[in-house]
Structure formats: C-alpha cells, structure tokens
User: Fold this.
Amino acid sequence: MTNPTFKKFGGGSRVKTVSVSDEWNITNGGGSRSYGQSYDYTIPYILNGDTIQISSGVASYEPFIGGDENSFKEPFPYVKEEIFLAPDNFYYSEKPIGESLFPSPIIGYSQVKVTTLNNNIERTGTGYSINQFYTAKDFPIFTEQTNLSIGTKRVKTGNPIISFLKLGIKDHVTASQGFLIETNDMHGKMKTESVYNQFGSLISSTHYKYREKQGRNGKTQISNDINVVAKNGEIFQNKKGIQMDIWNEMKQDNTTTKTIGAAINVDGFFLTFIPAFIPSGYPSIQQESTMLRTSITTKFIKRTGLLEKVIVTENGSTIETENLLYDKETGDVLLTRTQNEFEDDIYQMNLPAHWAYDGMESAYKNIGVTFKFLKISDGKFPATFDPEPFFFPGDEVYIENSVEKKGFIVKDEVNDQLIIIDKDGNALGKSPALINPTIKIVRSGKRNMASSPIANIVSKKIPINDSKISFENVDVISSDALEYSDDWEMYCEKYPDTTGQYTISESPINPYRTGLKGNWMKSESFAFYNPRTPNSVQTSNIRLDGTITDFYSYWDSPTSPDN
Assistant:
C-alpha cells in the first residue's frame, strides 16, 4: 500500500517503557531512584531528501477481513469472451491463490532500540543496544502457478448425413493446472545484536546469517541445500528443514443427451375441384455426449531457516563461525569452521553417538512395529522369522492374546538370539505357549540419544578427503573421546523365604526393569596425548606449530573404537 505518511494502524500492543523504582524514600527517608529501559521501534527513512522516522514494523500478512488494501489481492483473468459488435466480457478470480495457507497477520519489527532510563552518567554509562530481526520483507511469501493446460477431443462420425443429424457426437475437454505456495519461518528471527556505548561507538555485535538463494522471481528465498555426512563417513548433498504437502483435486462431469422425435408435414392442394393431401415425415434422433475433466494440484512448501554462520565482533576483532557439515540422520551440525587470532581457519568435528552405539539411535526406526505370529514358545520367535531387522534388545512390547500383556526383548547370549521375557525375567510362552499373539513395540530399545557426542577433534585443516571424512594429515590440535555403556552393576536381589529371612535369589531377573541395562551413560573419557610440533623450542612458530604428531582417531570406524 502506498501511504504518504508511512504510518498505518495495526492490532496488538508493544512495550514502550519498563521502569522499576527502588522506593528508598520509604526506608531511609532519602530520595528514590528509578531504573529501567525504553524501547524505540522506529528507523530513519529518506523521503524527498528529508530524513523522517518511520515504524520498523512489517506485517507478515494482512487480515482476511477488511484486507481490501492488501497488495496480494489482484485480478487473475482466465477467460476473455469476444462478442461481435458488443463489449467483450472478461472473467477473473481474485489472487492470491490458496490464501488460507498464508501466515496469520503478525507485526514484526525489523529494529528495536533499547535505551537505559535516567542514564546521566557520562563516564561509566551503559549506552544502548539495537536488535535487528528478519521480517517478511526480507523473505516474502512466494507463489506461482503453471499455465492452464487444455486438451480437447471432438469425435464425429464420417457419414455427413449422420453427422448432420448429430448422431454419435462426442465433445470431451480436459484441463489441468498447478499452484505453488511457499512460506518460511524467518519473520521475527534474530538478525543482529549490537551494543553501543553512551557516545554511539560500537562495542560488540553478533550477526546471524541464514542460508539463502535467489528465487525464480528475483526475490530472496530460504535455501535448504546442505552437505550431510552418513554413518560410513560419506559426504553428499541433501535437504533439511522442508515440509511439503500436496493436494490433488480431480473432477469429472458427464452429460449425455438423447432426443427421439419425428417431423411430420401435410401438403394439400386441389385437383380441379377435388382437394388432395400428401403427408410426409421423417424421424428426429439426436445423441450427443459432453465431458469435462479437471485436475488441480496445489503444493504447499514451508521452509525452515538454516543458520549458516555467526559473525561476532568485539572491540574491533571479528570471529566468524560457519556450519559446514550436518548429520544425515539427526540434522545436527557436525563440522564447523572458525578462526584463531591469526585469522587462520580452525575446524571442529563432532562424532555422534549413534555412529557407534545402536542402542542410542533414534527410536523411530522400530517403534510401533506390529507382528502377528502363530506361536511364541519359551520366549523364542518362530524359526522361520528373523527378528534382528525389526526388534532390538530393550524393546518394550504389548502382547495381545496373552495373560501377560507386557514383554521385553532381551539378548540370549548363550544361544545368540533375541527372546521375549516378562517383567520378572521369565521367558514368555513357556507353559503354555502363546497362540496367535500380536506383538507391538510400544517403547523402543533405541533410546533417542543420537545427538550425544562420542568424540571431538579440532584441526587446522578441513577433515575431508575425496568426499569422505578423513583425519589424515589435517594438523590436529586437540582430540578427546567418550565411551558409553548400558551394562551396569547393582546390588544382589534378595527375596524373603518362608521364615521371613532374606536370602540371595538365583531366580531370573529382568535387566531392563532393575536398571542393569537400558540406561546409556558415559563410562569412560579419553584425551589424545602425543608429542607436538616442533621438536625443538628454538625453531618454534607459534602460528604454525603445536599440532599433534602421529595422530589417529580413537573411533577408528563407526562401529568399534581403536584402543
């Protein structure tokens, strides 16, 4: 909307001042002091050569009701009917298409200035801070539609007489079109935090830069293309932070018209004085079929902003931290790049726990899995069924058609197989066997601890070689590693005998109910220690030296540590 004053009323409220009074005049009779902060939501704007103050507010969208001044609303013509010797008719719908998918009308401010109240201290004053935010103006809504595709099929018979009589006429029309609505979550995200002293000089700032690209319409658009690393160390490009919904609406209208009648005529004349009549007639039979098929596809995409780098400036010194690699499974950042005091790149690589421990993987891999078996005997699955791809030690299952409704999956180390036990540790289906049981995993043995770290390696060179993670010749500065375990010791279980005395029981127990297993915690930590370069102090270079010699990773492979 074009507004000469650059001002517009909006709903809601905003904080103008926060003030706190210490009320010292009540306690000691002296004067009281007020403390607090004031908030300014305006920015300077040059209009016709003059600088004016305008609001920094940006609306994510206009209200649906009363949004006549919405810039998104414009005619969308689809048919032009040309009429001979008369004005043409134009038919149109109103944009935007798919308005119900647009975000709610929320006002976000691109800049807020926070100033301390009663700041009359010149020497040690606190100054002010400016917080800047991304808004819908920086990352607007994106809409697009394909051209209307119309296919027409008219079928007529080859006989001109039958064609004239409109027998067997078919008129079929097919039309299709696609629409795209793309939104994002950038409205209101932090852009820059800046702190100034009372004289207006910058003290420190933090700038958050998100991944972006140039859209097809020339506007800035969120980019969700990232480099990910898999469990085997391979690196490839993938997408993260995209939610997509697609709807297809298909309609078909058929009309078949059949008309049966007769055209009768009688001609009369006189033969001398005798009237004569000649009747004539022919049948009227018409058959016509019309059909309209329409197909409309609507794609709704919601993009989540991905933080690309953080730039921190303090007292003239700038440090930039950039996210380079993400975990393919969890989406967590694994490799970052920053700089040291010499402005040389420093790389930090984190290895996630699920690369080494299956029990710390994400639970989505098998939770909710349901099977129906013919029989479960002595806790064993049928011989024709391999439970390894679906079940995992520590899974808690719900069992239908059984007196005992809850079971646990454990590893039988003697026979090297998975079995089902009850809460007390006894094998299910021992006596009698379970017939036609339905087993569903209600809690996975994979404990959703995939993001826990097992190693941290800091190097001066990027640990990537031939699109794979590699720590050879990367000038490692420091490295530490962790081991986890879910195998813990506990006190001996005791049960009262017939005399009421507690004795050590040799009965089986459920390790997942007693805490022996299933609780993944750190068991050991390690730090890599080897001589560092150079060998002689006299020839040292503090910028280049200090890297570990003969470095090797503690976790040699994704499945086993190299001790």
About this structure: Helices lie at 24-27, 160-164. The mean pLDDT is 85.
